[in-house]
Amino acid sequence: MAGIKTIIGLSFVLAIGFLLVILSAALFHSFLTLLVVATYVVAPLPNWICGRAANPDDFMESSGSGIVDFGRFLTGFFVVMGIALPCLLWHSAQIAGGAAVMAVAGGLLIYGTIISFTMFFQEEQEF
Question: Which residue from 8, 62, 79, 99 has the highest number of Cβ atoms inside 10 Å of its Cβ?
Fold first, then answer.
């Protein structure tokens, strides 16, 4: 069971992540780095949707895990895209190197916080 200290700590880390991404856009005058926030916010959605759609029947445990694997693939794609997009923008001289580093660091903090929230506040299944 997660307590109030966990919520406050994770909120603080999430705020630092958003601050890094916003500062990478504002300090270097290129708002293309804000696309990282969109990729990290969308990243957990395929896992959640495919996890819900994988086993609609509680009595059958032998259903295939193809849809779960597809959700994990899409989540991995979005996480890698959140890292690769600032690197690609830096390589094509659309953003500065410092903005790319700040965007990647902030994006990883955002995604790590989202994953931590889901781990700490996961409902336990009783069977």
Answer: 99
How many beta carbons lie within 10 A of that of residue 31, not counting itself?
13
HSE value, Cβ hemisphere, 13 Å, CA-based, for 13: 17
Distance (Å, whole) CA 46 – CA 42: 8
Question: What DSSP string runs through 53-101?
Answer: HH---SS------HHHHHHHHHHHHHHHHHHHHHHHHHHTTSS-HHHHH
pTM > 0.90: yes or no: no
Give pLDDT tens digits for 55-68.
666 565 555 678 88
Q: Domain map of the chain by residue range?
A: 4-54+64-120
> How many whole angstroms separate alpha carbon 58 and alpha carbon 92?
50
43 in Cβ contact with 111 (< 8 Å): yes
State the burial class of residue 82 (Cβ atoms within 10 Å of its Cβ: 0-12, 13-18, 19+): buried
Q: Which residue has the tokens 């931590």?
A: 116
